[in-house]
Design a protein that fits this description.
The structure is a single chain. This protein is α+β, with helices and mostly antiparallel strands and about 210 residues long. The chain folds into two domains: about 110 residues, Trna Endonuclease, Chain: A, domain 1 (3-Layer(aba) Sandwich); about 70 residues. Helices cover about 35% and strands about 25% of the residues. The strands form four sheets. It has a four-stranded mixed sheet with strand order 3-6-7-8. Strand 1 and strand 2 form a beta hairpin. The protein is elongated. About 25% of the residues are buried. The mean pLDDT is about 90.
Length: about 210
């Protein structure tokens, strides 16, 4: 899905760029570093099937007149369709934003969309931020040989398995980076809000779990 408005601004001093999403296999434009970091996180969450930037135009009434809202990000998955507004805390606290975002949330809900606002507290919270920085470089790497049935059998017999078990099962001098590649490419998943290490619990990406 292409953006419905020009996203990347050429205004002087504006930080902007393009992020290549492994999940949707296309470049996604971002207008702030917060937006970029949000896209990186979404690219690593297995439950997210699709990501779109500036996906549509929403008309709504606010303060007695017609307004237009362009969602920052739209994600889809088994959870449905969710609009994510990326906003620095200092801007979120502005009186107009405090009044208009509840209105926007209501209009979106009527059209079948969920709505969330992500600030730097959400996007850069630890240890998730550090985990994302560890995983992201592996998202385009070639995965080690991966037999899902073998991992499933091990998990069923042991009750759960850890990254160190993944490394052992892969064998052939496998390392933590090999296990992280399987996570970053969406084959395994773990809780991004717990510090990643050899003792981290992991599961197959198609078997449910946490964001």
């Amino acid at each position: 899905m292409n953006p419905v408005r020009q996203v990347v601004s050429r205004s002087k001093g504006r930080v902007h760029g393009l992020y290549y999403s492994r999940k949707v296999k296309r470049l996604l434009p971002w207008e702030s570093q917060l937006e970029r970091d949000a896209l990186i996180i979404l690219d690593l969450i297995p439950e997210v099937d699709d990501i779109a930037v500036q996906p549509f135009k929403l008309n709504y009434q606010f303060d007695g007149r017609e307004r237009v809202y362009f969602p920052d990000i739209l994600i889809t998955g088994d959870f449905g369709r969710k609009v994510i507004e990326v906003k620095p805390k200092r801007d979120l606290g502005k009186p107009e934003n405090l009044k208009r975002f509840p209105v926007i949330e209501t209009v979106l809900a009527e059209k079948g969309y969920q709505f969330e606002i992500w600030t730097e507290d959400d996007i850069r919270r630890e240890p998730r931020s550090s985990n994302v920085r560890s995983l992201s470089p592996h998202r385009l790497s070639a995965s080690p040989e991966f037999d899902a049935s073998r991992f499933r059998s091990y998990s069923e017999s042991a009750g759960s398995f850890l990254i160190q078990d993944v490394v052992e099962i892969i064998g052939e001098e496998a390392t933590l980076d090999d296990a992280l590649t399987l996570v970053a490419t969406g084959q395994l998943k773990l809780n991004l809000d717990e510090k990643i290490g050899m003792k981290s619990s992991v599961e197959l990406a198609d078997e449910g779990g946490k964001k």
